[in-house]
Every structure is written in structure tokens, then in C-alpha cells.
């Protein structure tokens, strides 16, 4: 049986009470580079998003789960499945841990491992892919450590703060 609980974190569905965390995260300009956001989100729009967060991944082609700490039930980030393609058995994965103090403690590794178990055993996917900025050394290390293979580099893919950045495409196959 699948369990979305690890040693230090668990993954859960979004709840209406997540509005403040979601509002702060989505409007954090530090994250706009990776999310493609260019304008702030209103609480109204995010409340509408939360009202529809229960919709099935087969319908909306994406799924966002909260990353919560087991010891104090604190929400520290999100993990997203996107571009869900059941015909070709694949999806993209991305995660964000909001506060820098929560990073580099194994949470990302544990979270991605949990989501890999979920997509391969429950959704029956063949592959997961991740898009990582080349200068995001922590994420590059994370995906390499978890067996994702670097399969390509998208040159000058992201324009940020006056210059272009390369984005690495990682892929993990369920063999």
C-alpha cells in the first residue's frame, strides 16, 4: 500500500487553510524565475484555485501537494506534477521549499522519492521529467542523486534579470 509519508515529511492535498501560505509563495518574486510568473496573484484568484484543487489529475493534467513536516504539521512547500500525459505515461515534477532554513536537510530528496513511488505505483507512469536551471546547483544535485538522468540542455531557455540561462532536462524512467 502506498503511503505519502516519509521519515520527516508527509504529502497532502491542498486545503482552504493553505491560502496564506499559497499567497506568500506565489507572490514571492524570488520564485518567479522558475515559475514563469510575471505578475502578482490576488487572494481571490488563489481562492478560486483552491476551490478547484480537488479536481482529478486526469481532468486537469496537474496535481499540487503540500509538503508538511511530521513533527509539527507545518507546511513548508509544494510538490507539483504537471503536463500529466496518461497516454504516453509521463509527467513533469517540480518542487519548492519556501524558506531557505528548511532546505538542504533531505526534505527535497524525501519528497521527490515519495512522489516517484506515487506516480510509478499508483498512476502507472513510465517516466518523470524535471526542468532545472543550470545554476540551481542544489536541485541539479538532488535530481542526479535520485537517479534522474540529464538528457538535454535547453540553451538560453530562461530570460531573467537581463540575461539568458540554460535549463537542464532530467528524466527518470520506471524500468
List keywords for this structure.
acyltransferase activity, transferring groups other than amino-acyl groups, Acyl_CoA_acyltransferase, 175 residues, 7 strands, 7-stranded mixed beta sheet, globular
List the helices and strands and how they pair.
Blueprint: E1 9-13, H1 19-26, H2 32-35, H3 43-51, H4 57-60, E2 63-69, E3 75-85, E4 90-97, H5 107-121, E5 127-133, H6 137-145, E6 149-160, E7 163-173
Parallel strand pairs: 4-5
Antiparallel strand pairs: 1-2, 2-3, 3-4, 5-7, 6-7
Q: Care to give the gist of this entry?
A:
The protein has 6 helices and 7 strands. The chain has 175 residues and is α+β, with helices and mostly antiparallel strands.
Structure description:
It is globular and about 40 Å long. It has six helices and seven strands. It has a seven-stranded mixed β-sheet. It is α+β, with helices and mostly antiparallel strands. The model has no long low-confidence stretch (mean pLDDT 90). The protein has a domain of 118 residues: Gcn5-related N-acetyltransferase (GNAT) (Aminopeptidase), CATH 3.40.630. It is 28% helix and 35% strand. Helix 1 packs across helix 3.
Q: Report, as a whole number of angstroms, the end-to-end distance.
A: 20 Å
Number of helices: 6
Helices and strands, in N-to-C order?
Answer: EHHHHEEEHEHEE
Can you tell me the overall shape?
Answer: globular
Main β sheet profile: 7 strands, mixed
Q: CATH H level of the domain at 9-126: which superfamily?
A: Gcn5-related N-acetyltransferase (GNAT)
- Could you name the CATH class of the domain at 9-126? Alpha Beta
Number of strands: 7
- Uncertain residue segments: none
The fraction of residues in strands falls at: 25-35%
Average predicted local confidence, pLDDT: 90
- CATH structural architecture of the domain at 9-126: 3-Layer(aba) Sandwich
Cα Rg = 16 Å
Structural class assignment: alpha+beta
Helix content: 25-40%
InterPro entries: Acyl_CoA_acyltransferase, GNAT_dom
GO molecular function, one term: acyltransferase activity, transferring groups other than amino-acyl groups
Domain N-acetyltransferase: 9-175
Keywords: Transferase
Amino acid at each position: 500500500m502506498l503511503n505519502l509519508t516519509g521519515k520527516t515529511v508527509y504529502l497532502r492535498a491542498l486545503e482552504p487553510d493553505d491560502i496564506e501560505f499559497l499567497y506568500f509563495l506565489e507572490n514571492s518574486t524570488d520564485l518567479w524565475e522558475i515559475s514563469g510568473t510575471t505578475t502578482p496573484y490576488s487572494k481571490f484568484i488563489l481562492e478560486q484555485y483552491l476551490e478547484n484543487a480537488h479536481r482529478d489529475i486526469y481532468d486537469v493534467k496537474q496535481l499540487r501537494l503540500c509538503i508538511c513536516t511530521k513533527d509539527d504539521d507545518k507546511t513548508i512547500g509544494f510538490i507539483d506534477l504537471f503536463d500529466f500525459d496518461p497516454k504516453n505515461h509521463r509527467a513533469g515534477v517540480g518542487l519548492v521549499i519556501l524558506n531557505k532554513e528548511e532546505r538542504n536537510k533531505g526534505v527535497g530528496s524525501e519528497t521527490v522519492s515519495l512522489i516517484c513511488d506515487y506516480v510509478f505505483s499508483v498512476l502507472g507512469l513510465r517516466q518523470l521529467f524535471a526542468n532545472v536551471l543550470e545554476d540551481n546547483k542544489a536541485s541539479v544535485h538532488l535530481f542526479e542523486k535520485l537517479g534522474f538522468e540529464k538528457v538535454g540542455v535547453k540553451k538560453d531557455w530562461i530570460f531573467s534579470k537581463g540575461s539568458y540561462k540554460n535549463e537542464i532536462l532530467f528524466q527518470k524512467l520506471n524500468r
